[in-house]
Amino acid sequence: MIWEMILLVAAAYLFFSYILPYIKLKTFEQGALDEYCMIDIRDYQLSHRNPFHMTTKNIPLSYLPRTTKEEDICDQDIVVIAESKIAAAMAARILKKKTKKFIYYVTVS
Known about the structure:
This protein has 109 residues and is α/β, with parallel strands linked by helices. Helix content is 44%, strand content 18%. It has helices at residues 2-24, 44-49, 64-70, 85-96, and strands at residues 26-27, 36-40, 57-58, 77-82, 103-107. Strand 2, helix 2 and strand 3 form a beta-alpha-beta unit. Helix 1 packs across helix 4. The protein starts with a helix and ends with a strand.
């Protein structure tokens, strides 16, 4: 009985921590870019070589947890610019701890 409860709690943790942020991500259809907070999570070299937009804030994925602890990211809906949907889901998971806003993503190769 105890092992079943532990497995159930572990499955719930995995679902809400890793799978649900991946499912809830929505693709961003470019519209009014000023209404969103744009965060580029690619590393500095990739974002410099292939810039997305001038108002994009570049915070690499490895620096995102520290940056969200030190400062407020944004009070608008967020668009994550990433190399893949998996990286965007990881960033969404980090950002969801700090904000309740919608998080969209755009993949840029």
